[in-house]
Design a protein that fits this description.
The chain has 3 domains: 1-71, Arc Repressor Mutant, subunit A (Orthogonal Bundle); 72-163, Serine Threonine Protein Phosphatase 5, Tetratricopeptide repeat, CATH 1.25.40; 179-222. Helix content is 75%, strand content 0%. The chain has 11 helices and no strands.
């Protein structure tokens, strides 16, 4: 990287932050005009840093890692924040924008908390409470406004509760699958009802418990 021109270094760092993206976005993040960016891209390709085609891609993940490691933490934070702002202006999906906020240091930046909260909502809807948890914890660190501080703890608490319930459900289902007796299956089904009911999955909880009781009844009858 040392022997590369300043423009080529800036473009390489922009691509390292963005991953494969629209060339125009990389130009904007590197703060280069189209002509400067074209020369810089050709230089990087000649040095086998990026491939000669578009969008700009590193020739190997290890090259990307090497470029990323040359960036001081402060510069990396600023580039991720700037990438989030550019993606917002492009109308990118909230989770894509929020992904850059996760990698930027908290800085009281306009719109960051709202985007992180929206990304958390979408992650929850698609069944990814662990991702929602990361977004909301990062939103609290930004920091939020006074109004947002009144709402965020409730949103975070709901995700944390759901995540704990889902972990509990997974463990109980593993135990249920491994249970060797009908009685033990019935006991585990009874315990599993609680997280299922708490998540609003009432019919599933009732069906699970009904099945366990039937199996227990069959087992009792066959032992007579």
């Amino acid at each position: 990287m040392v022997r590369l021109s300043q423009d080529a270094q800036r473009l390489a760092r922009a691509v390292a932050v963005l991953a494969p993206e629209d060339a125009r976005l990389a130009e904007a993040l590197a703060e280069l005009d189209p002509e400067q960016a074209a020369w810089a891209a050709d230089t990087l390709a000649a040095e086998h840093v990026v491939s000669p085609d578009r969008p700009l891609r590193f020739v190997h993940p290890l090259v990307r890692s090497a470029v990323a490691e040359t960036m001081p933490p402060g510069e990396r934070d600023l580039l991720h924040a700037r990438a989030a702002e550019l993606l917002r202006a492009e109308g990118a999906p909230p989770e894509r924008v929020a992904g850059h906020w996760l990698l930027a240091a908290p800085g009281n930046r306009s719109g960051a908390v709202a985007e992180l909260r929206e990304a958390a909502r979408l992650a929850s809807e698609r069944g990814a409470p662990d991702a929602a948890l990361r977004y909301l914890r990062r939103a609290l660190a930004e920091p939020p406004s006074r109004d947002e501080r009144g709402e965020l703890p409730g949103e975070l608490g709901a995700v944390e509760l759901r995540l704990a319930l889902e972990v509990g459900e997974r463990h109980l289902r593993q135990a249920l699958a491994a249970a060797s007796s009908a009685r033990r299956r019935a006991e585990l089904a009874r315990e599993l009802r609680l997280p299922l009911f708490a998540m609003g999955r009432h019919a599933e909880a009732a069906e699970l418990f009904r099945d366990a009781r039937e199996r227990l009844g069959d087992s009792t009858a066959s032992s007579r």
